[in-house]
Amino acid sequence: MRIGVIGAGSCGKEIEAAAESIGRWIGEKGHVLVCGGLGGVMEAAARGAKSGGGVTLGILPGCDAREANPYIDYPIVTGMSHARNAVIAWTSDLLVAVSGEYGTLSEMALGLKMGRSVIAYRSRWKGMEGVVDVETLEEALEAMEKFSD
Q1: At 8, is the pLDDT very low, low, confident or very high (cuts 50, 70, 90)?
Q2: How far is Cα 115 from Cα 29, in angstroms, rounded to an integer?
Q3: Which of 53, 47, 148 lies closest to 96, judged by CA?
Q4: What values do phi and psi take at 58, rounded to 5?
């Protein structure tokens, strides 16, 4: 599967650690990590996926592949700014939101519109119809396991 991990470009240590663990799970299970390719949640998830032996795909907002964090195997330059969120949602079979800001919210909404399953770990937008809300890392990994079968 291609699993999109979405979240803010900057985050605290706790969210960073969770994103890295989620990415590691993706890599260990042999899935491909899809993300926005920059820092914060995206970089932590990509670092985790690489440490788990996985492959990473970064859908970048700009026009320069060098903008990608060092854990991205395949940087995709779009020149689309925030509109690249639609590419992330279309490319992913499953979306996992890790905390996040408004860009994450747009990716969640686009994913739902496109018929993707969306898991939200520690989201500030609880109760969105169609989203599986989880509060612990264990719950997130269990939900990912369920959707990746």
Answers
A1: very high
A2: 23
A3: 148
A4: -110, 120
CATH number of domain containing 75: 3.40.50.450
Q: Is the dihedral of CA 9, 137, 29, 126 positive or negative?
A: negative
- Structurally, the chain folds into a number of domains equal to 1
The model's pTM: 0.96
Q: Measured between alpha carbons, how far is 38 from 61 in angstroms, rounded to an integer?
A: 9
| Distance, first Cα to last Cα, the chain | 9
Q: State which H helix or E strand residue 94 sits in.
A: strand 94-98
Of 35, 37, 3, the closest CA to residue 140 belongs to 3
Model pLDDT for residues 54-110, shown as the tens digit of each residue: 999 999 999 999 999 999 999 999 999 999 999 999 999 999 999 999 999 999 999
Domain that holds residue 102: 2-148
